[in-house]
Structure formats: C-alpha cells, structure tokens
Fold:
Amino acid sequence: MLWFGQPGPGSWNGKCLCPFPLPRGQRPRFPQVNEVVFSPGESHCATCSEDGSVRVWSLASMELVIQFQVLNQSCLCLAWSPPCCGRPKQQRLAAGYGDGSLRIFSVSRTAMELKMHPHTAALTAVAFSTDGQTVLSGDKDGLVAVSRPCTGMTFRVLSDHQGAPISTIDVTHKETQGQLPPSLAAFCPWDGALLMYVGPGVYKEVIIYNLCEKQVVEKIPLPFFAMSLSLSLSTRLLAIGFAECMLRLVDCATGTTQDFAGHDNAVHLCRFTPSARLLFTAARNEILVWEVASC
Structure:
C-alpha cells in the first residue's frame, strides 16, 4: 500500500493512491511496491510492483494516469529520466525486471520505446545519467551494465562488485576539472580590427578584443561555456554551440540573442555558409541545417 498525507491526531488522514473506487474507509491492496520515483517537476510519481506493473500517478489528484504492464515478470527497480537538452516533455521511465530485462517507457507517448536484455540475473537498481542519454543498471550478481537507450546497445559491463547484489546506483554531474571547455577565437568578418574569443575563465562570456586599441572593447555574457563558434559576414550574426545541447544566435548589430534547442548532444560544431543563408550545426553524428532569416 502507498499512502500520502499528514497524520491526524490518533489516526491517519492521508490520501490514497488507488486506480479504482473503493468503499469508504477501505484501503486498497496492491502487490508489493518495490520503488517510487518522481518526475523532475514533482507533478507525478511512478511506482513499480511485483506484478510487473509500472504505474504513473498525478500528485495533485492522487489518481492513476498511466499504467504499463508486463505479464509474468516482477518489476524490481525504476528510474525517471532527468530534465535535459531543453526537452522537458520527453520524459521516460527505465524499469528493471526479474528476468534481467530493461524496458524504456515514454511517459508522453504512453508507449514502450525499447526493451534490452543487458543482464542474465534479476535487476536490482537502475539510474539515468545526468544528460538522460545513458542508463546504468545493476543486478543481483553484482554486475553493472552501461547502455544507450538511443541505440539499444550495452557498451560496457562493470564487474567490480561481482558476487554481491547492487542495491543502489547514484549519478552526479561530470566534474569539469581537467576537462576544460575549448578555447576558440575568430577574426570579426565585418571589422578586421576585432577578435572574438571564448574559452575557460572566471566568467562565461564572449570577449571582443580590438587589435588596434590593444584592449577589450566588449563582453557578451553567455549561459554556459561555449563549445563551438561561427560568425557570418552579411548578417553580423554570431552562432555559439553549447555542451548543454543548445544553440545561441547573437545579433552583434543590435545585441539581441535567441536560443534554439534541437540537438540531443553537445553542439560541438557550427558553421555559417559563405552566403550566411544557412547555418550547419553538428552534435556527435547528427547534423542540423538551419535557415537564417534575413531581417
């Protein structure tokens, strides 16, 4: 049973998560609940049970909104994908089962996206990486598998804990120490005396240096450290790609900025065509072509 609420004096007055109506005062009976996880915005929670079900509940109404069912299997562990890449609506659940299988469910599309079988023993723990692109799963024999939901492939198995069940997997953001963002510089195509620079430093910014005056003449603040940089001649636009899957366009004539989300990985390359009508951006093995609107 799963109950939410605040205890009253001498009694429990919490609300009950129940998928069907019950007589007044009667509490529902469920198969054993093995895990409870919460959506990034805390609007929903999800539970998994011994009967192979994964249930998604609304925390506002305490009502069941989605149920995924796998027959003849126990669902032993569960993880909710983190908010990433500017796509909060693409929420997924990773569920581990007693037969060693791992299933990815799309909450927004109410469908199973993928089934993998990275283990031969029952899964006991599962977690998404902080960017949501990798799933780590552990089993009762102590093996940890590192898998990519986008390809369905397991690319690494860790056996350091072999012989003891994996009880918990936790992840954190990658430390940037020793892995600094790149240093990038480009001459300004509409003013040869200016040099634009981005790189590691105290502040996240574009530094514009005047070669004739031998001094910094302008600084443009950025939300993240830049991974890529490109400038166009005719439109006076500056394109900046970030590791956070975001692209920013800066109009150097007016000082306005606009952000775009379209990639699922770090935007490590961006290039304007010579005519500046198109902008090409790359993230791993994906290339997007953007049409640059003329004002």
